[in-house]
Design brief:
single chain, 141 residues, alpha/beta, five-stranded mixed beta sheet
Length: 141
């Protein structure tokens, strides 16, 4: 297994220790989309009942440029799912980027997000949150 897989599995185990939350086995978004139809394939999708509460992206090597695309796609998927009524109208998950072992990528992603202008254009997400390995357990639930 890769470092990314190990990190993803550790985060999922931490989330699954909270019985009111569930990590979906299939993470294709919009929910129910086939491989061809999906817009976004995040690493971890957390549900509480029928609502997505968290979308978690463990980042072990990527920098800021991919973050903007993931934010855009997560927001679009939530908008689409609310329109199709596969998510409650009030559902607004937190999109969380957890950086492991790459302080430079963490800083780059955070700066790119803050300077991009997308910060005010993700109305279907509660927030976009960046954290590193040391702070990882402070974001959930």
């Amino acid at each position: 297994m890769s470092e990314h897989d190990d990190v993803r599995d550790a985060i999922k185990a931490y989330i699954n220790a909270h019985p009111e939350y569930e990590c979906k086995e299939t993470t294709s978004l919009p929910v129910g989309a086939s491989r061809v139809e999906r817009l976004y394939l995040p690493d971890i999708v957390v549900m509480k009942g029928d609502a997505i509460t968290h979308i978690v992206e463990p980042e072990t090597s990527t920098g800021g440029t991919t973050v903007i695309g993931k934010i855009y796609l997560a927001n679009k998927c939530m908008e689409k799912m609310k329109g199709e009524r596969t998510q409650p109208k009030g559902a607004k998950p937190r999109l969380i980027f957890v950086y492991y072992n790459n302080k430079d990528a963490f800083e780059c992603a955070k700066t790119t997000y803050e300077e991009s202008g997308i910060k005010h254009d993700h109305t279907h997400l509660a927030e976009v949150y960046f954290t590193d390995k040391k702070e990882a357990e402070n974001w959930f639930p």
